Amino acid sequence: MSITIDLVGSENQRQVDTGTTGLDLFGEDRSIVAMRVNGTTRDLAHPLTEGDAVEPVGIDSDEGLAILRHSAAHVAAQAMQDLHADAKLGIGPPITDGFYYDFLLEEPLTPDDLKAVQKKMVSIIGEKQRFVRRAVSDEEAVAELADEPFKLELVQLKGNASDDDGSSVEVGAGELTIYDNVRRNGDRAWGDLCRGPHVPHTGYINKAAFALTRTSAAYWRGDQQNPQLQRLYGTAWATKEDLQAYQHRLEEAARRDHRKLGVELDLYSFPENIGPGLPVFHPNGGVIKREMEDYVRRRHLDEGFSYVGTPHIAKEDLFYTSGHLPYFAEGMFPPIDDDGQLYRLKAMNCPMHNEIFRSRGRSYRELPLRFFEFGTVYRNEKSGVLQGLTRVRSITQDDSHSYVTGEQAPAEIKHLLNFVLGLLRDFGLDDFYLELSTRDDAKKDKFIGSDEEWSTATQVLQQAAEETGLELVADPGGAAYYGPKISVQARDAIGRTWQMSTIQYDFNMAKRFGLEYTAADGSRQTPVMIHSAKFGSIERFIGVLVEHYAGAFPVWLSPVQVVAIPVADEFNDYLFDVADQLRKAGVRVEVDTSDDRFGKKIRTASKQKVPYVLIAGGEDRDAGAVSFRYRDGSQKNGVPIADAITEITAAIADRAQV
Q1: Which letter, b or e, does each residue of 1-34 get, where b requires 16 or more Cβ atoms within 10 Å of its Cβ?
Q2: Residue 194 among the catalytic residues
Q3: Is the pTM value of this prediction over 0.90?
Q4: Quick one: 369 and 222 in the same domain?
Q5: Which CATH number do you get for residue 229?
C-alpha cells in the first residue's frame, strides 16, 4: 500500500509506503530536526497520511533552533534528576539564544553542580536516547506524575496555559503528552510532560555546541506568591562555531553593559535608599539627557507639536475613564488615599492630554492637533524584571498625541513614522525593522473596540509601515488594549534588537472621554487619537545608546567633548585661554591641571572616552596651536587654534563620531 504526499518546495507529488515517517524522508540529513505537516510542526517520527503537505524544519532556522534547545532543556532536566533525586521539575522552555529549566532543590546550585550536570548531559547525548511521544489521559498523567507537584498543577491548566510563564510548552488545549527518553535497548531512561516536538534523539544535540551558562532564582510561573525555584540556564547551537560566536557576543555585551559603564563614566546610579528601578542621573549623564531632551523638544516643535505639561498624580477615576483601570491595573502602583479620595501615580500621559483637548471646544480647522510633553510616568514593574535603565519604574517619555479625523489618520501615521526614523538615524541607529502588534482575536475580552474598528486601524498602520520599504514583522496579540501599534525595532552595533519608538492607533479613548470637534458640516465628531513616543523612554534610550557606542558617544552627546592637557604646568594658562574660546563656541571642555603625570592624564581621558584630547607644549604655544590626540590613539600636531575650534564644532554640528 502507498500514499501520496506533497513535499513543500518540490514540484512533484511523491508516492511513499503507508506508515512512512519524517525519519524515512529526512533521517539521513542530520540538519533536519522536525517537519511541518499541513502547517503543524511535528516530530520526524510522526507517521504521514494520504495528501499530507510535508516541509522539513532545518536546524539553522529559528524554529529548528528552538526545537533543539527545547530538547537540550529536557536533557538538562534528566541530568539534574539523575544527579539530584530530590529535584522537582518546573518548566523548561526554549528562549532567545538558549533555554532554561526550573527546579525545586533542597540545596542551592553551585558552579561545581553546573559542571557535573553538563558532564552528565554529554553522557546522555552520547547514548542517542530517542525522544518518544506518548499520549496520556488526564488520569494517567496524574498517576504518573504523582511525585511532581508542579507538573500536576500544569495538568490542571490544560487549555489555559500561558506563553508568558512557559507553561504552554508543557500543556495545550488538546491531549496531554509525555515525552520519554528511550535507550537503544528500549528501556525508558526518563520522561517529562511536554507538547513537543523534539529532535529524533539526544545525539542531534552537538556535544561541542551547547553549554550551561548560569543559575538564578525564579518564582514558580513568575508569581511572587508561589515557591521560589532555581533556574538553570543554557544555550545550544547547531555547530561549535555558532556557540563560539555566541559566546563572543556575550563577552562583547558584557564589555558594553550600560550598568557597568554607567559607573565607570559616572553617568547614573540606582541608590538603594531611593528604591529599585528608580535611577538618578549624575552631571555627566545629565548632559546626555539634556542633549536628548533639547533635540527632541526642538524636533517636536518643528513637526507641529505644542508643548504641554501635566502632573504626576491624578484622581483614580481618571484612569477608569481612560480604561487603564482595570485593563492596566497590574502595571500601576496602588492607590493613595487622601481623606477618602483615591489618587494614582500616572502610568500614562494620555488621559491628561485628553483633558487638555476637552478644556474648550475644538474645530476641524485645528486638526491635526498635536500635544507633546516630557512626562514622567510610573510603572509597578516586578523587581525580578528590572534591569538597569532598560527596565525601570520611573519612566520619562517624550510622549505625544495627535488628534486627527479618520481621513487624516493615514497621513499622520506616515508623518510620525518619518519623524521617528529620522530621529533614530540622527542618534546613529540606522539598522531597524518595524513590528506590527495586533489584537489576539482569541482573547477579545482583553481589548476594547469592535472588529471593524480594529480592522480599520490595523490596515492603516500596515499600509503606512509597508510604504517605508522596511521589513515588517507581525506581532499577533501584542497590541495595547485600546488599539494596534507599530514599534521600531533597532539593531545595535553588535546586532542585538531593541524596541524603541512606538506609534499607536487609538479609536477608543477619545470616545471614553467624550472628545469631540465641530466638523465642516457643523456636526459633532469624535477624533482618532494617535499615541507616539519617539525615544520610547529616555532612560531606556540612554541605556541602549551607552551599549551601542560602548560609552564612546558621538561628539555632540559626549558629556565632556574636549580635555585639554598641558605638557607642563607652565602651559596651563595657555590652555585655559584655548578652553575659554572653545566654551564660547559651545564646546564642553575641561583642562586637566591635576597633579597626575602627563601619561596618566592621557590614560584617564582615554578611559573616560573623551572624543578630543588637546595637548599643548612650547612649540604649540609659540605657534598659537594645539595638538590633537584622538580616541584611536592617533595624533595631529600643530593645529592652529581657530582650525581646531572649527574641526570640533563641525563634528558637533554634524553629529559625527570620531
Answers
A1: eebebebeeeeeeeebeeebbbbebbeeeeebbb
A2: no
A3: no
A4: no
A5: 3.30.980.10
